[in-house]
Write a structure and sequence with these properties.
It is a single chain. This protein has nine helices and seven strands. The protein is of the alpha/beta class. It has one domain: Spore Coat Polysaccharide Biosynthesis Protein SpsA, Chain A (Alpha-Beta Complex), CATH 3.90.550.10. It has a seven-stranded mixed β-sheet, sandwiched between helices. Strand 2, helix 2 and strand 3 form a beta-alpha-beta unit. Helix 6 runs parallel beside helix 9. It starts with 6 loop residues before the first strand and ends in a 12-residue tail after the last helix. 41% of the residues are buried.
Length: 249
């Protein structure tokens, strides 16, 4: 715990057997209370590796539910465990778990309810090996989202995020996409609910075992990001109301 806040790390995994141990070993267990591993029907030994490492809370999807579907299971389990702070960390070791303490402290001390680990602040993205076309797309999409959503974030596309439990309970993510655009829908919901977002600089690593979507999936994701951004603006203007911003039942 940190300042009396229970911290739960959620790991949405798909074929993460080769990188799970490196990720898990860097988690600061002096403050982290629980780790949840959700395996999205991997084709490798991710579940067995999680058990070997001693992860107590492992959920295995019998069918692949997608990146967004995986996160839904992650957050529901974290809330079930009584989390006060939930940190979503990819188990592919692209992001360092060593930032967990800093991200948790921002929430635990009541400074911000949401913290994003940004690869774009500083020079971490390109230095860490992000492909140039992804960097350019990231910058363009982030610019568009900032304009449409009225924010000044450096990045909307990081897979390393910390939330207070209040934030997660305040939005209805159950009807969000099961694909990668889930991340952007969730941030749109958070902004629409007037929660403030902090960012910390995060080094990143691109290597063979680190998960990455291919070009065609990236294009689909980009179109989804543009759609969510426009839906957010039109909803805000009252042109039409989107179910994306319904309150949880």
């Amino acid at each position: 715990m940190l300042n009396g806040k229970k911290i739960v790390i959620v790991l949405p995994a798909y074929n993460a057997a080769k990188t799970l141990e490196r990720t898990y070993n860097e988690i600061p267990f002096d403050i982290v209370d629980e780790v949840v591993l959700v395996d999205d029907n991997s084709k490798d030994e991710t579940v067995q590796e999680g058990k070997r490492l001693g992860i107590r809370h492992i959920i295995k999807h019998e069918v692949n539910k997608g990146y967004g579907g995986n996160q839904k299971s992650c957050y529901r389990k974290a809330l079930e465990l009584g989390a006060d702070i939930v940190i979503m960390l990819h188990p592919d070791y692209q992001y360092t778990p060593l930032l967990i303490t800093a991200m948790s402290s921002i929430i635990a001390n009541g400074l911000y309810p949401v913290v994003l680990a940004s690869r774009i602040l500083g020079k971490g993205a390109l230095k860490g090996g992000m492909p140039m076309y992804k960097y350019i797309a990231n910058r363009f999409l982030t610019w568009f989202e900032n304009v449409m959503i009225s924010q000044k974030l450096s990045e909307y596309h990081t897979g390393y995020r910390a939330f207070s439990a209040e934030v997660i309970r305040s939005i209805d993510f159950s009807h969000n996409s099961d694909d990668f655009v889930f991340d952007n829908e969730m941030l749109s919901q958070i902004v629409m609910n007037d929660f403030e977002i902090a960012e910390v600089t995060c080094p990143t690593k691109y290597f063979k075992e680190a998960s990455s979507i291919n070009f065609s999936r990236s294009m689909k994701y980009g179109r989804g990001v543009l759609r969510v951004s426009m839906i957010h603006r039109f909803h805000k203007w009252g042109i039409f109301k989107s179910n994306l911003y319904n309150k949880p039942a």
